[in-house]
Amino acid sequence: MSLTKKERAIYEDILRWEEDFFQNPERQQQPSKPLFRFDGESLELLDNLLFLFNLFMQSTKWHTSAADKLLDEARNFDESIQTIGDMQRLPVHTLMYISKRRIDKEQIRSLLQGGLSGTGNLLFLGLDLPSLLVLNLRAVQFIAMTYGYSVIHPVEMLLSLKVFYTATISKKDQYAMWKNLEEEAKMLNHPFFYEGSDKIIDNDWLQNQLKQIAKAFLIMMLRKKTRQGIPFLSIAIGAWLNYHFSHKVLEIADKFYAKRLLEERAAAGDEL
């Protein structure tokens, strides 16, 4: 399939975004130095738990319902669409529109969740990090499905986890992971055969999540600064930090899958 003029313009926009987002790639590829290190067995256990949780999540009503709602929305543009793979028949700008609607909803959800955590309630604070990670992982996988990549296939599930990983590690490590993601996506020859690494969680990623824990301590310190009994400052900080987290994660996911689809279409038409 050849790229349309509009799709070429979208591709150029993504390249400009990529250049701007991953500024100074030489510096970004420098290895990070974790403040703490888990041993290999512990990391493998965390990886296994992540895969099991993801499989459980895909077996729930949410996944089926999300896929059905996505297909229903896509049929507003093409009534013949029946499967996630059929989504790729739609123009990329239409897929980006559908994806943006989802991203907007998730960012509002993160904003509200962060605001609740900002009240300093111990239950909300305790649930903040796990729920933030889970909700954004689900959103990344929804974006993958929007561009026609079914995450029920093992390799696409694993790739979506790596997209999420890339979006949630420190900025200086993201460029190298982004390039690795692109190479792994090009290696996918069959949805049930994966040639890349199946490792996800590492010490660098775990260290970066300390920022979310630090946020909880900041909120606890600021929650006593109230006005008319309401901790407006800590609520605003919690809401902004969660919104910023989701914005970054979902922007990276959307650009990655849009670029991947455009390059696959271009390759089929011997373009670019």
TrEMBL record:
Record Pfam families: EcsC (PF12787)
Top-level taxonomic group: Bacteria
Protein name per its UniProtKB record: ABC transporter substrate-binding protein
